[in-house]
Design a protein that fits this description.
The protein is built from 19 helices and 5 strands. The protein is mostly helical. The protein folds into 2 domains: 154 residues, no CATH class; 150 residues, no CATH class. The strands form 2 sheets. It has a 3-stranded mixed sheet with strand order 1-3-2. Strand 2 and strand 3 form a beta hairpin. It is elongated. The N and C termini lie far apart (96 Å).
């Protein structure tokens, strides 16, 4: 049960953003999903919309049929929540809990697959970004088994199962944040998901994400946030997930984007079809550090914080000692390391690694505060080791590059003057 339970937002990360951060990254802003924030006063307005969505979802199937199905699995769903003795959950009677699972599950599927149908399309459109942010909060989840049970009432297209449909929804709505590479065609952002969907259909697993994947690098999803992380990192090579930290010593260095430019390490946007990629390579002349491109706004910031929180909650229940698990945290830690000033943020924008509707100062403040609470994962240390090795093996090349980088304008000015003087001397020598 440890691996399938839905956890509270970890206490170790609650300092992010201070008191305001607790509301921004933990508490939903418009809609409560699940028991942790059920009944909050500021979310009451959406309860009517949820009921309308549930009624619309069940209109073709028969309300009682769908309701009975969810009520029959409500006990299993309740056991998916880890907080034994949690007052918010304990206060809910079994019937009230089951009704909540029924309404919230119908609402989620209606929002994801039928959000353009009346009579609630206007409310979905006006609150769309806020709803999208809320459904990926760690404390705003319902068990996957509830969505699986409701899936039989969703018309499937082209043989897709519920996991396929949800992943398609995630790609359509999240690719703009986590697959930002304007040099690629939009369809290429779907590559890792398409590969996953093909495997889902071949696995003969009714959910498409069940035990047939347990031997791989991810178990059955707990909830939508877990499925989001799974889809984002599914194509990541196994060597980037391994933890070899216990038997190795790592350099304690910190290099900003400007520092890397000075020593000849070029920042680039990664072209890998998965997110959270951090890859440092030693090129024939110089080095290269590539990272997955990111579009940062309020929705993406909340998702990133909650993905890091999910990694913390899953760390204690890792099924393998070789699994690191902190791939998103490592990626965020590297990005934060690269930012010491607004000029560093500007360099990341210029290199296509970062795009944001935050100002440079706001972006810098977000990452520098966030990194104080993150655990450094294997990919972070691997990148640091590569940079350290590059600096140790190429000291002369680095010294020459740093001199040219820091004195480029002076060198250009001197060469310009020299070329003028040469021209003058040549003119004077002519008879």
């Amino acid at each position: 049960m440890t691996q399938t339970r839905i956890q509270r937002f970890p206490q170790s990360l609650r300092g992010i953003g201070g008191g305001e951060g607790n509301r921004r990254y933990v508490v939903p802003s418009v809609v409560a999903i699940g028991p942790f924030h059920h009944g909050r006063a500021h979310l009451h307005e959406m309860e009517e919309v949820k009921l309308m969505a549930a009624h619309r979802f069940c209109a073709d199937s028969g309300v009682q049929v769908v309701r009975d199905k969810i009520f029959s699995i409500a006990g299993d769903a309740r056991r998916c929540y880890a907080a034994t003795g949690d007052l918010q959950i304990a206060a809910l009677e079994d019937a009230e809990f089951a009704e909540m699972m029924f309404v919230d599950g119908c609402f989620l599927l209606q929002f994801m697959f039928k959000g353009n149908e009346p009579p609630i399309v206007g409310r979905f459109l006006s609150s769309g970004p806020s709803i999208l942010k809320d459904i990926f909060l760690l404390e705003n989840q319902i068990p996957w088994l509830v969505l699986e049970a409701l899936a039989k009432y969703v018309p499937m297209h082209d043989g897709l199962v519920i996991a396929d449909l949800v992943l398609n929804f995630i790609v359509d709505h999240m690719k703009g944040y986590f697959f930002l590479d304007r040099s690629r065609k939009e369809d290429k952002a779907r590559l890792c998901f398409q590969n996953l969907l093909a495997k889902c259909r071949c696995a003969k697993d009714p959910v498409g994400m069940g035990r047939s994947f347990s031997h791989g690098d991810h178990p059955n999803p707990k909830h939508l946030l877990g499925l989001l992380r799974f889809g984002m990192t599914r194509g990541m090579p196994s060597q980037k997930r391994r933890s070899e930290l216990s038997n190795r010593s790592f350099p304690r260095l910190s290099c900003s984007a400007v520092d890397l430019a000075q020593i000849g390490v070029k920042l680039t946007a990664s072209r890998t079809p998965w997110f959270a990629d951090v890859n440092c390579q030693k090129k024939p002349i110089f080095g290269e550090l590539s990272l997955s491109p990111l579009f940062l706004n309020h929705v993406a910031a909340c998702c990133l914080v909650n993905l890091a929180a999910l990694e913390v909650t899953e760390a204690t229940s890792a099924s393998s000692s070789e699994s690191d698990g902190f791939v998103v945290s490592s990626y965020l830690s590297v990005l934060a390391m690269l930012m010491d000033s607004e000029e560093d943020v500007h360099q990341l924008r210029v290199r296509g690694v970062l795009c944001s509707n935050f100002s440079n100062n706001q972006t810098l403040a977000f990452f520098k505060e966030l990194v104080q609470y993150l655990r450094l994962g294997y990919n972070y240390y691997a990148a640091m080791e590569e940079i350290d090795e590059y600096m140790r093996r190429r000291p002369v090349r680095i010294a020459v590059h740093r001199f040219i980088y820091n004195n480029y304008r002076t060198i250009v000015a001197v060469l310009s003057i020299a070329s003028v003087l040469v021209g003058i001397f040549k003119a004077l020598k002519k008879p």
